[in-house]
Every structure is written in C-alpha cells, then in structure tokens.
Amino acid sequence: MIKTKLNALGIEADLPENIHFYDDGFISDLKKHSAELCKKYSSSLIQTKEGFFEFSVGNCSSFHKNNQTFVHIYYKNLIGAGQNIFNRGHEETHALVDLGQLYLLENLVKTRRLDVSPFRSSDEEFIADIGGLCALNSQHNQLNKFDKFLVYAQNCILGYSFKLEEWMKKNKF
After folding, report:
1. How far is CA 13 from CA 16, 80, 86, 106, 113, in A?
2. Which of 26, 43, 138, 170 is the right S-S partner for 77, CB 3.0 to 4.6 Å?
C-alpha cells in the first residue's frame, strides 16, 4: 500500500500499488491538459457536455492502462485563495470517488458531526461541493463562527448549489 495525501482535504489514503494519484496543480487550459493526459495514457478524450472546458474551473481524469489506474486532478488558478482551496477540495473529492476512497471524506464529515445523508445519493457534484466546503473549513478553521464562515464560503464558492447552501445552514459548522 502507498500512502497518498490529498492536501486540501487533509486526508491520507492507502492505495494499492497499482493505483496512482496525481495533483497536477494549477493549469491554464483544462482542455489542453486533458488532451495531453489522454495522449500520455493512449486514451481518447472523454465526451463532455458542450462548453464544459470553457466554464469549468477544474477536472478529475482517470485512466486505466496495463492493470494500473492513474487519477489526475488539475484546476485553474482563481482570483482568491479561498476559491482555490474550495476548487481543490472539490476535485480531490472526485478523485476519492475514482480511487474508491470516498468513505474517507464521509468519515471526516461524521467526525465533525455533520449530515452524511448526501453520501447516500448519486449526486457526485453535490458531494464534491461538500468536499470543497470541508477543505475551506479545514484551511480556515479560525472562522469558528458559522455565520462568518457562511459569508466567507459564499464569497469563495463559484456557482455553488442551493442544495449546498441548505446543507451548510442545516449543519452550522
């Protein structure tokens, strides 16, 4: 087993030797980086919704080659540090799904006595937003008053969903 750290979430995962995680960091062009990864792993670019690369701020790509799995996250450098932390936590959550390790985030959420019911749904984007929020909260734990944190989070999260806002209010962390 190989210990792998997902820094924004503050989670360590034990991965089998045939599963590899890479945080490629900030990139300027999601589509170009995706194409480069596809070329590296002899894979075709996965079909995405029209406009995905133009409007997205990050991505998680998984490849399978020679009985190995390679999971890469990469993201744009956004205006604020909080936005970048949220974005990284969001993409790290997608990586946890692809790595078969989402239970680690669910355990983190449980230890904070937060609602884990979203982990029973198939709404991966909502779960990834919860991961982004957990990363934000971990990185800025000095914001211990929920109302201050909520305002801060709302300023950091681009296009967060109404579901996420309701979840935040319900949990008051």
Report:
1. 10, 28, 20, 13, 21
2. 26
Strand order, beta sheet including 58-65: 19-26, 68-75, 58-65
Domain edges within the chain: 2-171
Cα distance between residue 79 and residue 126, in whole Å: 22
| CA–CA separation, 78 and 39 (whole Å) | 27
pLDDT in tens, 51-99: 566 667 889 999 988 899 999 999 989 877 778 888 899 999 999 999 9
What type of residue sits at position 31? Answer: K
| Per-residue pLDDT at 157 exceeds 70 | no
DSSP letter assigned to residue 21:
E
Q: In the numeric block, which tokens belong to residue 123?
A: 């709404």
